[in-house]
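One chain is below:
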Amino acid sequence: MSLELGAAFSFFKMRPQRSPLLFRLASVLLGLAASGAHAAPEPIKLALIEGLSGSFGNAGEAVHRNLVWAVERVNARGGVKLPGGARPLQLLRFDSKGTTEEALSMFRAAVDQGVGFVLQGNSSATAAALIDGLNKHNQREPQRRALFLNYSAVDPVLTNEKCSFWHFRFDAHADMRLAALMDVLAADNSVKKVYLIGQDYSFGQHVVRKSRELLAQRRPDIEVVGEELHAMGRVKDFLPYAAKMKAAGTQAVITGNWGNDLTLLIRAAREAGLEAKFYTFYGNALGAPAAIGEAGVGKVLAVAEWHPNVGTAASDAFYAAFRQRFPQPADDYLHARMQALVEVLAQSIEKAGSTEATQVARAMEGLRYDGRHLGGFHGGQVRAEDHQFIQPLYVSQMQRAGGGGVRFDNEGSGYGFKTVRYLPAEATALPSSCKMARP
């Protein structure tokens, strides 16, 4: 209660007969002040801007579950510690309906609601537009600056040519993932013929182009026997592609395909009798193992920062806790990087002693996260020069669940992944061309 209000109440308490109305008013004000003293602390707002409906709504909802769990874990230990007292995190949902235009509209709605931290990742094109929008907003309205935390938009340009002080990426970008896959492929001396195939848009084109470049550097003896770009989401029968791969003597396929374009391709390869391994970015992603089925056993490889069969006690406990929170098999989609994102944000706010975007960004630059709230099994560092989170990567191979090294399956499919190569964080880092302008 303020000194002024206390004095007024004391005055009217001693002289209620002089002004019963004012006495009652002072009593009401005192009650309001007392209740305000015990009000819940204001939450720190995080905005998830993602396609939560439409064709890719399931992917957006899967991300939402990851972030909900991460926020719950921070709040369960008391929230984010600040000089004025601990404050909880609050995750707000903004449905972009899978379009960049709507995502920008949702961004404006979020900052109008006082959101200081925007989370997105299921489209690199949308991420690029958000970076541009955020740069302009933060310059125009410095009193309402915000940060963009990206959990899966992997176009390398986002932390290179388009790098921004206001953007931080918590997924390994496409070249980092591809380099990890190439480590495994390059070590397989039996492979002499490789086929490159991708979806005909910026990401797919980049993976095909970069794969050819890395093969020339790492394994110049390998022959690229085919190179294809196909319309995204429009090919219903990949058998003609699989037939060409088989006719060319393909022993390995490198692809950035995802969704149906990946599952249909691998099924067609099995139907055509193609005995080749598939080096993929997303073979272990949402719905893919169940859709691929037996055709992927021993043939599909994927790359990620973590997978459920890492095999340590801390990893097993982490995964078991998530499955307890979301027990339905269809909800089984967990990524350590999304947990790390929220933990790094909380740690940066505490380090800054503030939720102001500029101060939090400066605190996040160079921050080292030791994985303490993930059981210590997954950590990393935010590289100051480009705001890329440097973390370990695993290349894993699809197997039937229950076999050696495959204790857990994916989404109740009966198929899981087994580690074939682990790369520590320092081995995944690549040079950056970022020339960042700082406020």
User: Anything to note?
Assistant: Confidence is low (pLDDT under 50) at residues 1-18. The chain has three domains: 3-37, 44-172+334-388, 175-304+392-428.
